[in-house]
Amino acid sequence: MTATDDRTYRSGPNPFHAVMLAGTVPLFLGATLCDYAYSTSYHVQWATFASWLNIGGLIFAGFALLCAVIGFFRSSHRGAVNMIYPALLLLTWVLGFVNSLVHARDVWAMMPAGFALSIVVALLAGTAAWVGFSRLGAGGKP
Amino acid sequence: MKLSPFYVAPLSLLLLASGASAQQSQQYGPDPTLPEPQRGLLPDMTIPEPAEWGDETPTVPDGYTITAIATDLQIPRQTLVLPNGDILVAEGSGGNAPKLKPKDFIAGYIKSQGTTSVESGNRLTLLRDENGDGNYEQSVFAEDLNAPYGLALVDNNLYVANQDAVVRFDYEEGQTEASGPPEELTKLPAEINHHWTKAMTASADGEFLYVGIGSNSNITERGMAAEVNRAEVWEIDAETGLHRPYATGLRNPTALTIQPDTDQLWAVVNERDELGPDLVPDYLTTVQEGGFYGWPYSYWGQHVDPRVRPQDPDKVESAISPDYGLGSHVAPLGLAFSIPEMGDEFAEGVFIGEHGSWNRNDPVGYKVVFVPFSNGEPDGEPIDFVTGFLTDDSRTRGRPVGVTIDPDGALIIADDLTNAVWRVTYDGND
Predict the structure, then answer these.
(1) If we measure between CA atoms, which residue out of B127, B151, B152, B149 comes closest to residue B138?
(2) What angle (nearest 5°) sits at the alpha carbon of residue A36, between those of residues A34 and A38?
(3) For residue A42, which residues of chain B lie inside 8 Å, CB to CB?
(4) CB contact under 8 A, B220 and A42
(5) Cis peptide bond upstream of A112, omega within 30
(6) CA dist list (Å): B389 to B23, B63, B73, B328, B371
(7) What is the pLDDT, as a whole number, of residue B25?
(8) Virtual CA dihedral for B410, B415, B418, B423, nearest 10 degrees?
(9) What pLDDT does residue A134 have?
């Protein structure tokens, strides 16, 4: 009998990748909650907070995306299914960037598009993190 | 600045999408055409890059001559012609507005490309033409002021509107230097000072000073609390400093003056940005006592600004339409009534210094225009009086600010990019 090592993927993203990926969720979620607070209170400071939280989310998501793309090309599994995680992050980042431009509009001009985009981006970031911390995101089989 | 391809590509798309209405001619006069508000993903931004004059000077109509009577100033803004013909120049730059959103860092950098790099002078310079040959000597009249802008002389009192207070100097005719530090007449709203320029003029009888206090934001994005006592014209008792709002809802009243004969107060006002290339027209208007001119809730009378929450239908209802549109984004910063000595064509009306646009792909302003009057009211389209600040390749050699009439028959123009004062004379008088 021969002992085999079938561990062809890492047990999870490396720590840097993990921190970046995990950070996207509270940042984009925070932006969404601030947008909600602005939409109900009209206090513009909430919109300012949302703008910065969204920028923070973009920075974290950007690094996570970089790690994901590198991970994809270094992995032995490069099927379409392995592209789901980087693709989710890419979509999160692109919509998050569009959202930052929408948030740059003065006061209520960012509404309702800004709030709607924040919700979508937060959901995408949550999904990307979920997938990213699964075997799939770590370069393994589904 | 030349925008990088990174900006130009999306901006061009927005331009195409918006139909690129470069036509501003419909925006002059009492009833300007107001398109629907629009704002793409990126605001339109074109900042003409500064250029040198070389041997050239601004362009003036035939029969007029323009010369630079002072150079190497420290951001000249407004001027005052004293009874003996001396000219006082207020120099400086104010404002203390923190950057709020990520965009403020980017937009602030881009806009700074179109302004001078000279430090704020915070002083008054005196220009004197000793022998009447048109050559002026420069000397410092007063220093250590705080972004002085508005200037007014009432008898022996020289009033200066700093960005945070109106101060008073004793003045004797012929004086070339202030006899001491000024005394404060009254403080002015100065928190944040997003719009810091405090325009000022004195009533015809010298009893009151009128001071323009600009809004603390483009459109309330610093919160409503920051707008207390802002976007107003104050009437200040010249003796006691007691004051009250004289008119409200004027977003940024950047120049005030009294009309000869009628003693009526007039203002030019810079309206809001980021509603498209042809919104909202900056305007010239009489300032009605107790009048509300719309900001922030509405523009040009009852046109509601959808960006302001909570809205205020009652205030919108009460808003006055201004008298005369000057075109959107031209940024009028100077206003002076003409006199017959300026020549027949320009005898009756006002000169307006236009600092020039940023929130528009096709730059506008960057010139001094003349709005003809008849029977004491604006009548007809603005006529270009001094141009050539903007070059054919969309670079800017100067940006006009304050304009003042010299009773001898000359127009004095402060230029805060060239850091010079220009004097336009009518040759027909010779």
Answers:
(1) B127
(2) 70
(3) 309-310
(4) no
(5) yes
(6) 20, 19, 18, 18, 19
(7) 56
(8) 0
(9) 87
Task: Kindly state the tokens that stand for B326.
Answer: 């000057």
- Which backbone phi and psi does A89 adopt, to 5 degrees? -65, -40
Q: Could you tell me the two tokens for B189?
A: 């709203």
- CA-angle at B392, arms to B387 and B397, nearest 5°: 55
Smallest Cα–Cα separation from B277: which of B101, B13, B40, B111? Answer: B40
Q: List per-block mean pLDDT (blocks of 10 residues) for chain B, which spans 430 residues.
A: 41 39 68 90 89 95 96 97 97 91 89 87 96 93 97 97 98 96 97 97 98 97 96 98 98 98 97 94 98 97 96 97 96 98 95 95 95 96 96 93 96 97 84
Question: Strand, helix or coil at B26?
Answer: helix
DSSP-derived 3-state class of residue B201: strand
Rounded to 10 deg, the angle between the A113-132 and A15-41 helix axes is 160
* Amino acid code (one letter) for B353: G
B218 touches chain A (CB under 8 A): yes
Q: Locate all alpha helices (DSSP H) within B299-391, ordered by sequence.
A: 313-318
CA–CA distances in Å: residue B15 to residues A99, B38, B279: 20, 11, 15
Main-chain phi, psi angles of B372, to 5 degrees: -70, 145
Grade residue A4 by pLDDT with cuts at 50, 70 and 90. low
Is the pLDDT at A135 greater than 90, yes or no?
A: no
The answer to whether A41 faces chain B, any CB pair under 8 Å, is no
Query: In chain B, how many H helices and how many E strands?
Result: 3, 30
pLDDT at A140: 55
- Of the candidates B144, B150, B142, the one whose C-alpha atom is nearest the C-alpha of residue B188 is B150
* Helix B102-112, helix A44-74: angle, nearest 10: 90
Q: What amino acid is encoded at A8 in this protein?
A: T
The pLDDT assigned to A3 comes to 54
- Name the CA radius of gyration of chain A, rounded: 17
Facing B39 at nearest CB: one of A45, A52, A109? A109
Assigned token pair, B162: 């700093």
Peptide bond preceding B148 in cis form (omega within 30 of 0)? no
Say which of A48, A98, A109 has its CB closest to residue B307: A109
State how far the Cα of B58 lies from the Cα of B154, in Å rounded to an integer: 33
CB B27 within 8 A of CB B325: yes
Strand locations in B37-136 (E): 49-50, 64-70, 76-81, 87-91, 123-128
Q: How does strand B377-378 pair with strand B367-374?
A: antiparallel
Is A8 within 8 Å of chain B by CB?
A: no
Residue A109, chain B, CB below 8 Å: the answer is: yes
Distances (CA, A) of B156 to A19, B83, B169, B175, B419: 70, 11, 8, 11, 29
Chain A nearest-CA residue for B107: A104
B21 in Cβ contact with B277 (< 8 Å): yes
Contact list in A for residue B311 (CB cut-off 8 A) is none
Residue A124 has pLDDT above 70, yes or no: yes
Residues pairing with B265 in the sheet: B258
